[in-house]
C-alpha cells in the first residue's frame, strides 16, 4: 500500500470517524433512489384515491421484485442482511418519492425487528423465506397501538399495564382476544407481530409478543381509516376474537414482551427519522428547483436574500437530522451499542424539522406549493404523523430528558 494511503487509513482510524458509505451501501442507496424516481414519484399523488390499496400493493410487489423489501432479512434466508444503517438509507430515499410507501415498508421492518431479535430457529425458518421472496411483496404489521392509546403502550413507565390484548394458554395453543387500532399494514399484512399480555395487572411480567399469520380464524379488520396523509399505508382496526395460534408462535417467553418492544423501538425510531428526512428532502428539492426558475423583481426567487436564507436553513436542518439518524443507526449496527437516547433524539429532531421544512417549501412556492399538482403539500401532510407515531414527540422529548439523568 502506498505511504500516503497508509497515512490516510491511519488518520481515519485515529479519528474514529468516517462520513463515507461502503460500495454495497452506495449501491443499495442508488437502487432505492432509482426506485423512488421511476416507480414511486410518478404515482405518488394517486395513493389518496387508491382506497382498495391496489396501487400500493403493486408498488410493494415491485419493491420485492428488485430486492428492496427483503433488505433486513438475514442472508441465509435469501434476504439482503441489511443493517440499521442500510435500512435507514433506503427509507430516506423511498420517502423522497412518497412518505406513505416508506412508512408501509419501514413499518413492515418494524414488525420484523423483534423476530430478528428473539425468534427460535424454527420460527426463523417459517417467517423469513417468504419475506425474502421476490415473487410477492409480503408485509409485516407491528400490532401495538390499541383504541385506548398508543403512547402508554410504548411508555416504559407504564410497565405494559395498559395493554388490553390478552393471551391465554389453552393446551398446545395460545388464544388471543383484543383490538388494535392504527397499525401500518393493518389489513394487508402477511404476518402480525402482536403486542399482548397474559395479565395487565402483572405489568411487564405478563407482557409478550406473539406472531399471528394472516388468515388465522378470528382475525378480522375494520375499514381502512381515511387520513390526512400517508395514504399508501393502510391503517384500520384489527380485531382478535378467539384467535388460536400454536404455542410456538410466541417470541421468547411470557414476560419478554416489554424488553423486546423497547429494543425494537430503538431500531425503528431511527427508521421514522430517516423517513422524516426523506419527506423533507423531497419537498426541499422541489422548492429549490422552483425558486431557481421563478422570477420576481427581475431575478430568481432563490437569489432574494430572505428566500436564500430560508433555503439555507432548510438544507442545514435536513443535514443535521440526517447526521443524527445516521449516528443512531451506526450505533444500532454495532454489537451492544444500540442507544435509545440517540434513536429518540433523531426521531424527535427529524420529525420537527420535516414539519418546518415542508411548511416552508409550500411557502416559497406560493400558490403552487399549496396546489395538489406539485406534491409539496402532500409532503407537509405526510410529515405531520411522524411527530406522533412511534413515540409522540411530547413523550419522546421527556424520555430523552429522563435518559440524561
Ligand atoms: C400512518 C400511521 C402509521 C402508524 N403505524 C403504526 C404501527 O406500525 N404500529 C402501531 O402499533 N401503531 C401505529 N400507528 C399508531 C401510532 O403509533 C399512535 O397513533 C401513536 O403511538 C400515538 O398514540 P395515540 O394515537 O393513541 O395517541 P395518545 O397516546 O392518546 O396520545 C395523544 C397525544 O397526547 C400526548 N401525549 C400522550 N402521552 C403523553 C405523555 N406521556 N407525555 C406527554 N404527552 C403525551 C401527545 O401529544 C400525543 O400525540 C400509526 C398511526 C398512523 C396514523
Write the layout of secondary structure elements.
Blueprint: H1 3-15, H2 23-40, H3 54-65, H4 84-97, H5 99-118, H6 121-132, E1 140-143, H7 151-154, E2 166-170, E3 173-181, E4 191-197, E5 207-213, E6 219-221, E7 237-246, E8 250-251, H8 257-293, E9 295-296, E10 299-300, H9 305-333, H10 340-364, H11 366-370, H12 376-386, H13 393-404
Parallel strand pairs: 1-4
Antiparallel strand pairs: 2-3, 3-7, 4-5, 5-8, 6-7, 9-10
Helix pairs in contact: 2-4, 4-5, 4-8, 4-9, 5-8, 8-9, 8-10, 8-12, 9-10, 10-12, 10-13
The structure holds flavin-adenine dinucleotide (FAD).
Flavin-adenine dinucleotide (FAD) binds at residues 103, 107, 110, 142-145, 149-151, 155, 182-184, 227, 230, 233, 235, 385, 388-390, 392, 394-395, 398.
Would you kindly provide a written description of the structure presented here, covering whatever features stand out?
With 405 residues, the protein is α+β, with helices and mostly antiparallel strands. The chain has three domains: 19-139, Acyl-CoA dehydrogenase/oxidase, N-terminal domain (Butyryl-Coa Dehydrogenase, subunit A, domain 1, Orthogonal Bundle); 141-254, Butyryl-CoA Dehydrogenase, subunit A, domain 2, CATH 2.40.110; 258-404, Up-down Bundle (Butyryl-CoA Dehydrogenase, subunit A, domain 3), CATH 1.20.140. The chain is 52% helix and 13% strand. The longest helix is centred in the C-terminal third of the chain and has 37 residues, at 257-293. Residues 8-13 have low confidence and may be disordered. Flavin-adenine dinucleotide is lined by residues 103, 107, 110, 142-145, 149-151, 155, 182-184, 227, 230, 233, 235, 385, 388-390, 392, 394-395, 398.
Amino acid at each position: 500500500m502506498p505511504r500516503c494511503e497508509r497515512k490516510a487509513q491511519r488518520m481515519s482510524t485515529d479519528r474514529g470517524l468516517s462520513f463515507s458509505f461502503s460500495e454495497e451501501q452506495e449501491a443499495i442507496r442508488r437502487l432505492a433512489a432509482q426506485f423512488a424516481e421511476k416507480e414511486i414519484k410518478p404515482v405518488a399523488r394517486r395513493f389518496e384515491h387508491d382506497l382498495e390499496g391496489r396501487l400500493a400493493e403493486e408498488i410493494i410487489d415491485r419493491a420485492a421484485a428488485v430486492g428492496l423489501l427483503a433488505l433486513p432479512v438475514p442472508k441465509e434466508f435469501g434476504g439482503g442482511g441489511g443493517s440499521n444503517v442500510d435500512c435507514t438509507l433506503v427509507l430516506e430515499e423511498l420517502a423522497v418519492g412518497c412518505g406513505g410507501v416508506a412508512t408501509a415498508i419501514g413499518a413492515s421492518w418494524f414488525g420484523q425487528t423483534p423476530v430478528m431479535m428473539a425468534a427460535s430457529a424454527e420460527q426463523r425458518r417459517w417467517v423469513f423465506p417468504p419475506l425474502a421472496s421476490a415473487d410477492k411483496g409480503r408485509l409485516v404489521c407491528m400490532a401495538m397501538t390499541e383504541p385506548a392509546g398508543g403512547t402508554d403502550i410504548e411508555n416504559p413507565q407504564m410497565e405494559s399495564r395498559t395493554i388490553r390484548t390478552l393471551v391465554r394458554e389453552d393446551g398446545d395453543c395460545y388464544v388471543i382476544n383484543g383490538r388494535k387500532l392504527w397499525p401500518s399494514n393493518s389489513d394487508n399484512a402477511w404476518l402480525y407481530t402482536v403486542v399482548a399480555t397474559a395479565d395487565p395487572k402483572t405489568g411487564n411480567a405478563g407482557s409478550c409478543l406473539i406472531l399471528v399469520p394472516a388468515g388465522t380464524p378470528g382475525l378480522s379488520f375494520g375499514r381502512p381509516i381515511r387520513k390526512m396523509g400517508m395514504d399508501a399505508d393502510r391503517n384500520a382496526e384489527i380485531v382478535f376474537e378467539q384467535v388460536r395460534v400454536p404455542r410456538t408462535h410466541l417470541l421468547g417467553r411470557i414476560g419478554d414482551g416489554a424488553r423486546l418492544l423497547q429494543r425494537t423501538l430503538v431500531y425503528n425510531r431511527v427508521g421514522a427519522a430517516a423517513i422524516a428526512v426523506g419527506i423533507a428532502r423531497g419537498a426541499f428539492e422541489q422548492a429549490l428547483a422552483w425558486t431557481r426558475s421563478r422570477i420576481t423583481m427581475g431575478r430568481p426567487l432563490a437569489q432574494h436574500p430572505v428566500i436564500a436564507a430560508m433555503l439555507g436553513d432548510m438544507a442545514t436542518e435536513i443535514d443535521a437530522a440526517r447526521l443524527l439518524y445516521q449516528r443512531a443507526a451506526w450505533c444500532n449496527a454495532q454489537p451492544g451499542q444500540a442507544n435509545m437516547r440517540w434513536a429518540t433524539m433523531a426521531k424527535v429532531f427529524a420529525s420537527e424539522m420535516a414539519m418546518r421544512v415542508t411548511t416552508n417549501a409550500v411557502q416559497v412556492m406560493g400558490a403552487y406549493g399549496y396546489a395538489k399538482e406539485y406534491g409539496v403539500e402532500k409532503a407537509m401532510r405526510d410529515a405531520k404523523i411522524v411527530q406522533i407515531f412511534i413515540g409522540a414527540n411530547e413523550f419522546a422529548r421527556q424520555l430523552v430528558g429522563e435518559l440524561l439523568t
